[in-house]
Amino acid sequence: xxxxxELDEFLIGLGxxxxxxxxxxxxxxxxxxxxxxxxxxxxxxSLQGAYGTYNPESNTLTIGAPALSDxxxxxxxxxxxxxxxxxxxxxxxxxxxxxxxxxxVNAEGFQAVSAANxxxxxxxxxxxxxxxxxEHALDNPENTLMRAACPIEQQLAVSxxxxxxxxxxxxxxxxLDAPLLESFFG
Length: 186
Known about the structure:
60% of the residues lie in helices and 8% in strands. By secondary structure, it is mostly helical. Strands 1-3-2 form a three-stranded mixed β-sheet. Helix 5 (107-116) packs across helix 6, helix 5 (107-116) crosses helix 7 (152-162) and helix 7 crosses helix 8 (167-185). The radius of gyration is 18 Å and the shape is globular.
């Protein structure tokens, strides 16, 4: 998607699929901000197995089939991938290096990174942890469900990571400790 006419056509299609006016404004904002930074947006219905990707070498944000078919997931994917755009921008969009922004991380981010079995490269884990955390912390106008309070396992994982444990190790340790604490407190 490279032109305003293509953007308008995409937004009209989203509106026909029931996205709210707030959701439309959110999607348009992410796309226009990417364009302002020189980042190309690609809508790729053939992309399976991922909601979206960001390639720092080509400065391309791609939205895949799973996100294109679900308004909530579409916005969450833009939230997540846009964090990667900002992580790339902090190191300069003219190269392929990325750095964490220093945003706060949360239990949902730890859980997503752990569940996705993301590479063992700590640098990539840090980037993904930040993006997943932001995705869960940002307001999604299409998500009318309230998020459940963090169970003790998630709270433990955040605490362990804050004390210096690797995010994956923190999540694993929390999964071992949480049942013990829950049985103790009954």
